[in-house]
């Protein structure tokens, strides 16, 4: 059974999505127990892989259709149809936090989404969204990367448009689907260019055969830019505010993780596919790093400035998602820029690896505190019946738990100790300063503006006199909603209090799985 864990982690939720209509015949409670068990099983299976991969530095391969699935042969690499799964520190890290956010999203949805005859479809889409994220992070095959990206895009679009009785969600869903279709189409063109030259879809095989021709550079652009758009990087962020603001709160929390799965693709392709350190690629790789850095700086600054002027709480948080993506791009972009720079590996080991540590650490931090903030926004909209901050006041009198959860998320995203955002931002500030002090100053300035933005939300929505006449829902929160926010708060505190352990056992193995010169 252990040998087959890589494929079971994907197959179990995929099979559950197909059999869910049959389980629903037994009733709502059996369905919810069944889906909860699936989410728990996926999390347990992923956690069980941490010792081998993150502590003993193993890399697991699983070749579907092979007599010995866990044994990778040259034929398994070259055969164009055979699917190869590869789990290293980076893919496992992303999958673990994707599964955690998926579990939180399901718990929060238990009473948040009404049982109106359509919830069965909603739960099926949640499972498919989880399949898309984990499959994308586990596959070592470009075509199947495209397939899982499509599964993820379609399920996300359907969940964004789920509330079809309202005017704006279907529009937001169509917009997300249009952007996703454009992105995946160009990505598939890039995959086709790679296959036309090397006769394989396997990333490791293509990397070994890579000759860095003009077609390779075109393929790189066709694959990296669409994934950056799916991640919400400026100037390709036009879909983020509409999509995040109109989706149900638990879906928005999962959309953050889905966007980071696309960001995973940017980093994975940059290193694993195109990062052949034996070739003379220093100039091109340095340029690629600077392109990612520029995207990161633009995302940070434009995202936070757009957030400052918002009066819709979910749109405000959506633009902050764009801004936080910038930190991740900045950190890993610096690592890419010096990975094959003119001074070889010395600069990478001096501050490039540290920059990547901060960028990847910020990915998992963001999935927690940004997901938490969107969940608190869902409670705010539920309480006041609107997302307009001008019509919210005094919520701290009514809902102490949500108030505390919001404070935790706001302080974490602003980089205030002892919360998790402080550790990753401090690492980014320090390492980027060695690369270019001006970039570090911009990052710190954006962090100050982030704090100011959330102080505005806290002052406007939570403080002030209690106004019961503005409340449309005065009932206690369902246990699933409080459990979901509580799990997020717990992770934020643990990662903020013990960042050294997180870096040693999760982040360092992720970088080792990504960068080949370590």
Topology:
Elements: H1 5-24, H2 28-48, H3 50-55, E1 60-63, H4 74-78, E2 84-87, H5 89-112, H6 119-138, H7 142-160, H8 168-198, H9 203-209, H10 214-231, H11 240-246, H12 249-273, H13 282-308, H14 313-339, H15 345-384, H16 395-398, H17 400-414, H18 420-435, H19 437-462, H20 479-497, H21 499-514
Helix pairs in contact: 1-2, 1-6, 2-5, 5-6, 5-12, 5-15, 5-20, 5-21, 6-7, 6-12, 7-8, 7-12, 8-10, 8-11, 10-12, 11-12, 11-14, 12-14, 12-15, 13-14, 13-19, 14-15, 14-18, 14-19, 15-17, 15-18, 15-20, 15-21, 17-19, 17-20, 18-19, 18-20
Please give a handful of descriptors for the protein shown.
single chain, 518 residues, mainly alpha, two-stranded antiparallel sheet, 2 strands, globular
């Amino acid at each position: 059974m252990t040998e087959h864990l890589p494929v079971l982690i994907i197959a179990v939720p995929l099979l559950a999505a197909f059999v869910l209509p049959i389980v629903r015949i037994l009733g709502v409670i059996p369905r919810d127990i069944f889906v909860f068990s699936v989410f728990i099983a996926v999390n347990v299976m992923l956690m069980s892989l941490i010792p081998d991969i993150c502590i003993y530095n193993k890399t697991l391969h699983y070749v579907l259709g092979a007599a010995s699935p866990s044994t990778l042969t040259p034929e398994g690499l070259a055969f164009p149809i055979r699917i190869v799964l590869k789990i290293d520190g980076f893919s496992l890290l992303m999958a673990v936090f994707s599964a955690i956010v998926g579990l939180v999203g399901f718990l929060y949805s238990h009473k948040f989404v009404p049982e109106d005859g359509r919830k069965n479809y909603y739960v099926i889409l949640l499972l498919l969204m989880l399949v898309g994220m984990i499959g994308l992070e586990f596959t070592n095959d470009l075509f199947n990367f495209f397939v899982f990206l499509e599964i993820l895009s379609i399920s996300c679009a359907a969940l964004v448009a789920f509330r079809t009785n309202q005017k704006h969600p279907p529009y937001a869903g169509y917009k997300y689907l249009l952007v996703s279709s454009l992105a995946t189409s160009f990505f598939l063109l890039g995959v086709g260019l790679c296959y036309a030259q090397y006769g394989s879809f396997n990333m490791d095989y293509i990397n070994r055969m890579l000759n860095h021709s003009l077609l390779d550079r075109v393929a790189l652009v066709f694959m990296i830019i669409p994934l950056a758009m799916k991640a919400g990087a400026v100037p390709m962020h036009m879909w983020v505010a509409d999509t995040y603001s109109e989706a149900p709160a638990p879906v928005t929390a999962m959309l953050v993780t889905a966007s980071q799965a696309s960001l995973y693709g940017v980093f994975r392709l940059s290193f694993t596919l195109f990062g052949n350190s034996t070739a003379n690629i220093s100039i091109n790789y340095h340029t690629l790093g600077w392109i990612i850095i520029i995207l990161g700086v633009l995302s940070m600054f434009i995202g936070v400035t757009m957030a400052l002027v918002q009066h819709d709480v979910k749109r405000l948080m959506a633009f902050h998602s764009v801004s936080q993506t910038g930190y991740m791009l900045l950190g890993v972009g610096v690592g890419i820029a010096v990975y094959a720079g003119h001074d070889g590996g010395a600069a990478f080991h001096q501050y490039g690896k540290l920059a990547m540590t901060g960028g990847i650490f910020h990915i998992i931090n963001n999935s927690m505190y940004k997901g938490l903030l969107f969940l608190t926004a869902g409670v705010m909209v539920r309480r006041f019946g609107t997302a307009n901050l001008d019509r919210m006041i005094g919520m701290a009198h009514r809902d102490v738990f949500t108030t505390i959860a919001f404070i935790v998320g706001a302080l974490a995203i602003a980089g205030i100790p002892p919360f998790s955002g402080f550790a990753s931002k401090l690492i980014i500030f320090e390492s980027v300063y060695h690369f270019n002090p001006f970039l570090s100053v911009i990052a710190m300035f954006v962090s100050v503006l982030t704090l100011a933005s959330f102080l505005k939300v806290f002052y406007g929505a939570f403080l002030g006199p209690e106004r019961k006449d503005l409340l449309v829902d005065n009932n206690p929160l369902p246990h699933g909603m409080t459990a979901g926010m509580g799990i997020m708060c717990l992770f934020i505190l643990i990662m903020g209090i013990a960042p050294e352990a997180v870096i040693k056992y999760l982040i360092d193995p992720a970088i080792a799985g990504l960068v080949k010169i370590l």
